């Protein structure tokens, strides 16, 4: 196969540095190959480079709170990935749990494919937010992206949240090029609180996952310290960046004492309500401009140049593949933004709706 | 604590290491006693990128623990995360069960009939171990124990006396070790006991301020620790000079004193939350039944069977049924040789003695039970005498020899050939004319001396019964 891929630095290649964009892991050498790496190599796909992430993928999580300055990391990720790929079509694997990379990708005229949660193994992926961590694909050409997805997806006993029946092929039964928007009201619309729910859940999980970086066993350790507590605080203060520190503190806050009920558990409840409110019924995809929905619900989605995000039901990557073909063929009902206005709508594949 | 005015109220939290081959979330060996950091992999020393995969055997042993303690088994159990920083905790959080533990609402019945009720049993991972080197003033971390599966058995505050605590621990140890759930060795740390203790005036409804006692490493220490701590509470209440604080206290068995480890101030908060990286585990009735069917006979039922059905003395039955290893040897040997009394006599007599001579503890005796049964049968059939039997048994135990072949090769078979014995007796009689004269003069004592001499002459192989008969015949 002529394709080659670039890996985000949170995906391990044995013997190479795996930093996840953090000073904390600047000297961390991956002890194993990630399952996706093993599968790519077995399929003869060349890995042409590694690019640094925003630290633990946290850029953009607090962009509203922090005055919109934090997305820098995700934009440069895409930029550097394109550079690493030189003259070949870009395929980049990364863990985009915040949706920030997919936004940067479509801004740069690229596509982003988010697979169903539990279909791509996370063995060898430096974790950030376990309930949303999922290796996704930035690509110049969605056909390449789906080809790579078929290679890397599928059950892996080394990841405890894999779906046992995760499919390996995404060939749609019937490819329709004539999707039409059917303006249907969603039963309930929680889109106004997506961001807050994301911030609460992500910071709680991220603060927990980065507690392993304490300067004791591996990773950065402060040069001087008086005692154990100072070893912890100085190592972490010196090595973590602003976004990660903000997540660590926010995460500790939302889990602390009564806050658990007030913030964390409430966010979990809303997340469940959002999941339950998504009844696809006769519809194939939900279209919006918000990548967060698919992250919160573990659903597959496709982000296309222009900013639209198509979210399909779990394991319906085949629908997304059909959508991508339709978009490339210039179906205006899919690309025209006038109707959308940032709200969630559902569209129906006319053929499959028959 | 002997005060009539006060009542001591205690609840126990017991940590027991599960007897699994591997750790709770990775395939590293969970065995005790390896070189420091021998049983570690990137996952159990906290490196990122290794998703947890639950050890199914650990869940089964958790279910088994619930079954032997009359618990309700959860239909769905979850794993949760408990956050705190400590160098022996490689990921900065412990994976435990907080929201939906595997077992709830059980009990252990004491001999008095009193039930000690169990609030819950949960599965969790152990932490590593810190080793302080006073010489270099360094602290080293050993992650062998990190992520070894544990269960924590949490009782309600049902205990009033130290005796009840000891009896409960002993019963629990038997139940768990018999079912193969844990080896429950307190000195190796595979069974650890924390005691929540408070004191209140008799008749009071409200519990007093409690302290938690940790680091109690033997059953013997428990009674002392409880007595000390209860008295400390009473003294504090009586003198009123200072207030009792809710805190964790360590027990120093050498000095017999408890000491403050840390105050459990209101702020202590582990920020528990459901572990999103481990799917809930569904436990259906078929799985529970499969675990139930795999459980061996509990100690008290074995005791019943040995005394009532096999007619063995209570004393013998208690010793054998009280040890999982001896029970196993008993049952194994009984399968090959069905005289229960002989088997039990050989275990309590010869086997334990032979093992003791070789410094083998009762629980560590490992013997081919078919060969052991063969020794008992050969002795029962009169092919060897008991002295030789014990010698052969030692060979079977240490070198795993085949008893029949060994007896043959070393010609240890019992000599009951009359001609051979008669010639040996004649020699003995002629060498001991003085004793013969004493016997003839009416001394019975010298008779056994003469028997001993014949046995010696035949290198212990003579059939003692034939020697007795022939000797008497030839003397009279």
Estimate the strand proportion of chain B: 15-25%
Largest sheet of chain A: 10 strands, mixed
**Computed Rg of chain A:** 20 Å
Span between N and C termini of chain B?
72 Å
Alpha-beta content class of chain B: alpha+beta
Q: What best-fitting shape of chain B do the alpha-carbon axes yield? A: elongated
Structure annotation, total helices of chain B: 15
Q: How would you write the strand order of the largest sheet of chain B?
A: 2-6-7-10-1-11-12-13-14
Helix content of chain B: 40-55%
Structural class of chain A: alpha+beta
Number of helices of chain A: 12
Strand order of the largest sheet of chain A: 2-1-3-5-4-8-9-7-10-6
Oligomer: heterodimer
Low-confidence stretches of chain B: none
Largest sheet of chain B: 9 strands, mixed
> Strand portion of chain A, in percent?
5-15%
Mean pLDDT metric of chain B: 89
Which pair of chains forms the biggest interface, and how many residues does each contribute? A-B, 42 and 30 residues
What would you call the shape of chain A? Answer: globular
Question: What would you note in describing this structure?
Answer:
The complex is a heterodimer of chains A (354) and B (476). Chain A is 36% helix and 12% strand. Chain A is α+β, with helices and mostly antiparallel strands and 354 residues long. Chain A has a ten-stranded mixed sheet with strand order 2-1-3-5-4-8-9-7-10-6, with helices on both faces. In chain A, a hairpin with a 5-residue loop joins strand 8 (301-303) and strand 9. Chain A is globular, with a radius of gyration of 20 Å. The model of chain A is unreliable at 65-71 (pLDDT under 50). With 476 residues, chain B is α+β, with helices and mostly antiparallel strands. Chain B has a nine-stranded mixed sheet with strand order 2-6-7-10-1-11-12-13-14. Chain B has a three-stranded antiparallel sheet with strand order 5-4-15, with no helix packed on it. In chain B, helix 3 (219-239) links the parallel strand 12 (211-216) and strand 13. The mean pLDDT of chain B is 89. Chain A binds chain B through residues 12, 18, 20, 25, 30-32, 34, 122-127, 129-131, 157-161, 204-205, 208-209, 211-214, 216-218, 228, 232, 252, 255-257, 260, 264, 268, and chain B through 42, 45-54, 81, 83, 85, 87, 90-93, 141, 269, 271-279.
């Amino acid at each position: 196969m002529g394709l080659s891929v670039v890996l985000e630095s949170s995906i391990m290649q044995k013997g190479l540095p795996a930093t996840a964009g953090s000073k904390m892991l600047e000297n961390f050498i991956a002890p194993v190959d990630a399952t996706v790496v093993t599968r790519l190599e077995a399929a003869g796909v060349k890995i042409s480079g590694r690019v640094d992430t925003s630290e633990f993928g946290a850029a953009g999580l607090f962009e509203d709170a922090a005055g919109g300055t934090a997305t820098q990391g995700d934009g440069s990720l895409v930029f550097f990935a394109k550079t690493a790929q030189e003259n070949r079509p870009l395929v980049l694997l990364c863990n985009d749990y915040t949706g920030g990379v997919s936004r940067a990708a479509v801004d740069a005229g690229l596509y982003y494919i988010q697979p169903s949660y539990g279909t791509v193994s996370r063995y060898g992926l430096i974790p950030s937010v376990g309930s949303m961590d999922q290796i996704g694909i930035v690509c110049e050409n969605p056909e390449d992206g789906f080809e790579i997805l078929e290679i890397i997806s599928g059950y892996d006993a080394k990841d405890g949240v894999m779906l046992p029946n995760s499919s390996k092929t995404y060939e749609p039964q019937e490819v329709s090029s004539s999707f039409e928007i059917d303006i249907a009201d969603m039963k309930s619309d929680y889109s106004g609180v997506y961001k807050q729910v994301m911030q609460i859940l992500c910071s709680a999980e991220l603060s927990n996952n980065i507690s392993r970086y304490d300067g004791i066993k591996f990773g950065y350790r402060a040069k001087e310290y008086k005692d154990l507590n100072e070893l912890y605080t100085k190592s972490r203060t010196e090595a973590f960046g602003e976004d990660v520190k903000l997540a660590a503190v926010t995460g500790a806050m939302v889990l602390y004492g009564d806050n658990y009920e007030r913030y964390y558990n409430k966010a979990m409840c809303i997340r469940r309500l959002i999941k339950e409110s998504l009844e696809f019924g006769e519809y194939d995809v939900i279209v919006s401009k918000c990548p967060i929905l698919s992250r919160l619900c573990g659903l597959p989605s496709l982000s296309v140049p222009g900013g639209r995000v198509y979210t399909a039901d779990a394991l319906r990557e085949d629908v997304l593949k059909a959508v991508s073909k339709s978009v490339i063929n210039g179906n205006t009902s899919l690309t025209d933004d006038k109707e959308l206005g940032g709200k969630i709508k559902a569209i129906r594949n006319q053929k499959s709706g028959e | 604590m002997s005060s009539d005015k006060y009542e001591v109220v205690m609840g126990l939290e017991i940590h027991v290491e599960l007897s699994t081959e591997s750790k709770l979330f990775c395939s590293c060996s969970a065995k005790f006693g390896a070189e420091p950091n021998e049983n570690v992999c990137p996952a159990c020393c906290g490196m990122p990128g290794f998703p947890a995969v639950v050890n199914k055997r650990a869940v089964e042993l958790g279910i088994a623990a619930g079954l032997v303690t009359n618990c309700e088994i959860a239909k769905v159990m979850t794993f949760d995360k408990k956050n705190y920083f400590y160098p022996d905790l490689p990921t900065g959080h412990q994976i435990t069960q907080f929201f939906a533990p595997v077992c709830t609402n059980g009990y252990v019945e004491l001999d008095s009939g009193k039930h000690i009720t169990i609030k819950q049993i949960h599965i969790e991972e152990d932490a590593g171990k810190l080793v302080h080197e006073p010489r270099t003033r360094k602290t080293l971390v050993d992650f062998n124990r990190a992520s070894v599966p544990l269960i924590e058995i949490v009782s309600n505050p049902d205990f009033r006396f130290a005796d009840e605590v000891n009896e409960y621990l002993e019963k629990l140890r038997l139940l768990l070790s018999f079912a193969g759930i844990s080896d429950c060795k307190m000195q190796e740390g595979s069974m650890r006991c924390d005691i929540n203790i408070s004191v209140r005036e008799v008749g009071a409804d409200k519990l007093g301020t409690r302290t938690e006692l940790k680091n109690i490493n033997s059953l013997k220490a428990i009674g002392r620790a409880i007595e000390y701590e209860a008295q400390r509470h009473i003294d504090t209440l009586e003198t009123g000079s200072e207030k009792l604080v809710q805190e964790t206290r360590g027990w120093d068995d050498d000095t017999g004193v408890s000491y403050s480890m840390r105050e459990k101030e209101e702020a202590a908060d582990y920020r528990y939350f459901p572990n999103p990286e481990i799917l809930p585990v569904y436990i259906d009735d078929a799985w529970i039944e499969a675990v139930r069917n795999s459980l061996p006979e509990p100690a008290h039922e074995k005791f019943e069977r040995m005394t009532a059905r096999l007619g063995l003395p209570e004393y013998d039955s208690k010793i054998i049924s009280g040890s999982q290893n001896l029970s196993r040897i008993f049952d194994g040997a009984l399968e090959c040789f069905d005289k229960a009394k002989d088997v039990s006599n050989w275990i309590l007599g010869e086997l334990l003695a032979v093992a003791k001579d070789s410094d083998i503890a009762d629980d560590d005796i490992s013997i081919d039970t078919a060969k052991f049964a063969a020794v008992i049968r050969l002795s029962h059939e009169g092919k060897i005498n008991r002295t030789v039997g014990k010698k052969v048994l030692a060979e079977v135990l240490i070198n795993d020899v085949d008893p029949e072949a060994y007896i043959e090769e070393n010609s240890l078979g019992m000599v009951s050939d009359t001609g051979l014995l008669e010639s040996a007796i004649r020699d003995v009689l002629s060498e001991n004319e003085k004793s013969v004269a004493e016997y003839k003069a009416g001394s019975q004592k010298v008779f056994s001396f003469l028997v001993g001499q014949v046995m010696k002459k035949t290198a212990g192989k003579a059939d003692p019964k034939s020697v007795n008969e022939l000797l008497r015949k030839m003397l009279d």
